[in-house]
């Protein structure tokens, strides 16, 4: 028995070592940069600490090209939920790791990231809780919380402009999850910061959050976003083309905010986005008996009726995408995977077994679209037809 246990442990150690070798080959670590000058401008994280980012400099032909990628991490919608973030990396730069692994769209290796490997690649840390839209002048004396995300975004961009982005020939604003929403909401304002001759486009990865009912038929996400916008004072920093037409909190939804974006935008999203299934379609508040627990953890554990409900969510998602209208300059890669954020991880960005649509990986589709080699607007067939998916499985 002991030999069997030791043999099993040895096998797992071998697997772990192999995984670490692969991870090391596919990623590298980049030091953190704190924007200390932002503090005097009031451009600070929830706890008042300075904003931060990680920058890996470009080289060769990419030395004047810039890819600014925004970290994700959800939102906080009131003093209680924002206080919960104050003492972790999503609310304080004091709690952020000093080095961060870069891979996928941030990789510096041509075989892993052929179109952007030699660009200046930046990962902006997320510590404001409202996709960089908030700006409340007063600091609550009880909580000592700062709602200053819009100032943080501008302060970081000004720091990058001073470090050479003002000479950018090509520039991209991208992001994952709440960062993907940031890349949509700030797309035109990012372009406005750069020289007129700069080629600017935006990428949103898993940032197309839709306004739909949950399994209890409540508008849970709409009420939540309303609280986010109210708490952070976001209204004045949302696209004015939207807020002039409807309630500001509805402009936190891409289906409303992105209609009038002038800068070319590429949307990468799973039609069965695992975060949206877990938090918009079947949040805990709408599933008090936990009937969706196993399904949300692993899509292969969903019942026939749950899958039918998820197919309905996919249709809602596609309808929300259609609300943007037709645009030749827009691109999208909508696969039928149970996933969330597919550009930051090498396995889903560009590898021999990566997800594909029309025989193109996400990296190839986005690269061809950005460089005007070919347009890309593809929507996958319904689950479970796509055998290239890397479907998420959540433990516990």
UniProtKB/TrEMBL annotation:
It is found in: Secreted, Cell wall. Keywords: Cell wall, Cell wall biogenesis/degradation, Hydrolase, Secreted, Signal. Hydrolyzes acetyl esters in homogalacturonan regions of pectin. In type I primary cell wall, galacturonic acid residues of pectin can be acetylated at the O-2 and O-3 positions. Decreasing the degree of acetylation of pectin gels in vitro alters their physical properties. Residues 1-27 form the signal peptide. Its EC number is 3.1.1.-. It is an enzyme of class 3 (hydrolase). Its main location: secreted. GO terms for biological process: cell wall organization. Pfam families: PAE. GO terms for molecular function: pectin acetylesterase activity. This is Pectin acetylesterase. InterPro entries: PAE/NOTUM. Belongs to the pectinacetylesterase family. GO terms for cellular component: plant-type cell wall.
